[in-house]
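Homework-ish question, so no full write-ups if that breaks the rules, but can someone show me the predicted structure for this set?
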Amino acid sequence: MSRAERKKELIQAAVFVLPTLAVLLVFTLFPVVYAFYLSLNKVNLVGNVSYQFVGFQNFINAFNDSRVAEALWNTAKYVLIVVPIQTVLALILATVLNSGIKFQKTFRSLLFIPTLTSSSALTLIFMFIFSLNGPINSLLMDLHVYTQPINFLNDQSTVLYAIMAMNIWSTVPMFMTIYLSGLQDIDSAMYEAADIDGANMFQKWFKITIPQIAPVTNYVVMMGLISTFQLFDQPYIVSQGSGGPNNSTLTLSLIIYQYAFRQFGTMGYASAIAILLTIVIFIISMVFRRFSSEDITGEGR
Amino acid sequence: MKTRGKKISRTVAYVLLTIYSAITLYPFIWAFFASFKPYSEIVKVGAPLIPHTFSMANYQYIFTQDPLFPKWIINSLVISIVGTLINIVFNSMSGYALARLHFPGRNALFMIILVCIMVPAQILLIPNYLIMKALGILDSYSALILPSAVNFAYIFMMRQFFISFPKELEESAQLDGLGRLGIFYKIVVPMAKSSIATQAIFVFLAFWNDFMRPLLYITTESKYTLTLGLQSFQTQHGTQWNYIMAAAMITILPIIVLYVLLNRYFMVGMRIGGEK
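A: Not a homework solution, just the prediction itself:
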C-alpha cells in the first residue's frame, strides 16, 4: 500500500470510528477512572461539586455498614436461589420443546413475550397478582392452604421470594430460547448411537445432552449471575425505592442508588460500593469466559 | 412397545408445555382483561377472567384525565427511535472499520471494546450523572441517548458479520470509482440488512424498556419515559389496578406489534446472544 493510500484509509477509519471513540472515552473509559476517584473522596454535590480526599475510608465503611451487609445477604440469597432454578427449568423446557413435537415455533414465540416486556410493566402486573385480592391469594385460599389472604409484598418474610418468583418466571423463556438453539446444534448421530445401545430418555439426557450443552450452560449461568447480582428495577418498584419493608428488598444496586441519589454527601461512598459490585461481576465474567471453550473473537471459526 | 412409549412421552411433552405456557401467559391475559374492567369487578372475589362488558373507560381516563401520559408515550418514542437510528449508524460503521480498515491501534480498540462489553452499568451511573451535570444535559433526551449512542456488543456483532463478508464485492465497487462511504452505504449496508434489523430491534427494546437511567437522569415529570411514568402513575394511583393495568398494556402493546411483524429477527438475535 502506498503512503497516500495509507493516509486515505486512516482518514476513512477516523470517520468510521470517531463517534464510537467519543462515546467510549466520555461515557465509559473516563467514567470508570472517575468512579475510582470518587470512591476515594467524600463528594459534595451542593453548589459546585467538591471533593475531599478520604483514602480508602469509604471501602472500610462499606465493610462495617450493617445495611450493606443486609443488601449483600439479600442479593446473595437471590442469586443462589434464582440462578440454579432458572437454568435447570430453562434446560428442561428446551429439551421438551426440542423433542420433535409440533407447534415448536408457536410455543417458542408465545413464551418469548415476558422477555419483551419492560420490568416496570411486569412488576406492576405481578404486584397485582401477589396483592391481597390477587389470583395467588384466591387460588391458595380456594385450595384451603390458608384462610386469611397474605400481603406478600408488604411482608418482610415473603416479599423477596415473590420477586424471585417473578424473576424466574420472566427470564426462563429467554434462557430456554438460547438453550434451544444449542440443542439443535447437537449431532443427532450421538442420540442414534445411544438408541442402538438401548439407552433410555433420561440416560441420554444425562450422558449426552448435559455434557454437549455445557458451553451454553456456561453462558446461561454467567448471564444469570450477572443480571441477578445487578437486580434493581423490581425491588425499586415494589418498595418505591426504600428497600423495605425492614430492608427485606434492599439489594446492592438499590443501596448504591440510595447512597448516591437519595442521601446527601454519600456519593463517594456509593461509588465505593459500586466498585466492589463491579469487581464481583468482573470476576464472574472472567472466570466463565476462561472456562468457555469458545473463541471470543470468532476468528478461530 | 417402543412407539407406545414414544406416544406417551410426546403427550407428556405437550401437557408440560401447555401448562408452562399457561403459567407464562396468564399474568398478561389477566392484565389485558383487567384493563377493560371497572375497579369493583377486578377486586370482586370469584369474578370471571373475561370482563362482564368491555369498557374503554380506563384507557379514556389515562388519555383524558392524566395530562402527562400522552407526553410520556411521545418521549419514549422519540428517545427509542432516535437512539436506535444513531446506534445502527455508529455500530455498523465502527464494526465495519474494525473488520476492514487498517489503522494504528485497531486491535487495541477491539480489545477495549470487548472488555467494555463486560463493564456493568452500576459503575458508570454515578460518574455519568456527574459528567452530564457538568455538560448541562441532565434532565433532557440527550441524557438518555448520548451515553447509549453506541453499543459495544453490537459493534462486536457487526464486526463479526463484516469479517465473513466477501471482499470482492467491495473491490469491484472500488474499481467503479465509489468512495469508501459510498461503498459502505450502497454495497455493504444493504447486504447487512438482517444483522442491522436484529440489532435495531434489541437496541430499541433496551431504550423502550429501560427504567434505571430515566429514573436517575430525568427529574421533570413531563420528560419521563413511559416506564418511569408508569411507575409514578402507580405511586399516585395506589391500588387502582384498573388504571394501572390499562397503562401497563399501553407500554407493552407497541413491542408486541413489533414482535409479531418482525418475529424472525427476534429469533436470530437470540441465537447471536447464545453464541456470544
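Now go work out the reasoning yourself. Hint: Residues 295-301 of chain A have pLDDT under 50 and may be disordered.
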